[in-house]
Amino acid sequence: MSNKLTQPPIVSNGVNRTPCYRTELTNLKSQLNQVIIGKHDVVEQVVACLIARGHLLFDDLPGLGKTTFAKALAQSIGGRFSRIQCTPDLMPSDITGFSILDPKSQSFEFREGPVFTDLLLTDEINRATPRTQSALFEAMAERQVTADNTTYSLSPSFTVISTQNPVESHGAYPLPEAQLDRFMMKLSIGYPSRAAEVNLLGSSVGRQLKKLDLQPVLNLEDLNSIQAEVAKVEVCESVREYLVDLGIATRNHSDISLGVSPRGLILWQQAAQAWAYLQNRIFVIPEDVQAVAQPIMRLRIMGTTEKCDLIIQEVLQTVPIPNERM
Known about the structure:
- By secondary structure, the chain is an alpha/beta fold.
- The chain has 14 helices and eleven strands.
- The strands form four sheets. Strands 4-7-10-3-11 form a five-stranded parallel sheet. A two-stranded antiparallel sheet has the order 1-2.
- It starts with 10 loop residues before the first strand and ends in an 8-residue tail after the last helix.
């Protein structure tokens, strides 16, 4: 579909400003596609979430490669990786860290928890109690942790990937809306195709499961530069109005109890900027907003994935895109 907002790269001081790091991002997606076979759309959305500085929630069944994928992402960007297996007896200090008494100095020393990393995987986050889940609020929103009245900064690249099982409810604590709103996207890897699963079985015959040993294709300094470039991707007023109208439509929809919040719209805009960047553009068009609508809105609409997707399509079809209003 043609769009009146499509335009050539903006010229600044006589130089075309186009997105950089194309090779690095291509290599990143290529390496991740070798870890999760046949899930190119999922890989594209995960990379968009990463370069938009967003946190990700995988809502999927066990055994589909969520943990493997998170480890592969951390190794691919050369970042530190920490994993937390959430259980009902997990305490907030098990995530953020705690102070212990040093017998020599007779003073308390803060011991950093697993949250002090670049990529934090919280497995089965809905099995942790609400009190423990809330320990991630400040870290996810502001990339900092406050313990014993002292604030500690986290890595600028700090990213949370959480998983939850959508089927089992025994011993689980559903994530509150305030927690869900801290995530940028909700994705499902899903079952592999028949051919991919046959190849997976073939490659495992006579072999033990190997530890991932991937080489970084992107370093953290480059990632921070990419994230800075993504933040500068232009969003014209008509696209911002389009986003707001979509948000209002979710709040007025009869099947949605809580629509997209202003914070959710900001995250949606950031995801659209990242999607535009991955398409080698430095400006957002309505198609970018639509491309990331499902993973953004699935977090903010209660119900099954199938029902959510139908509602999302209704909202997208109801709100005219900017070029139709000109």
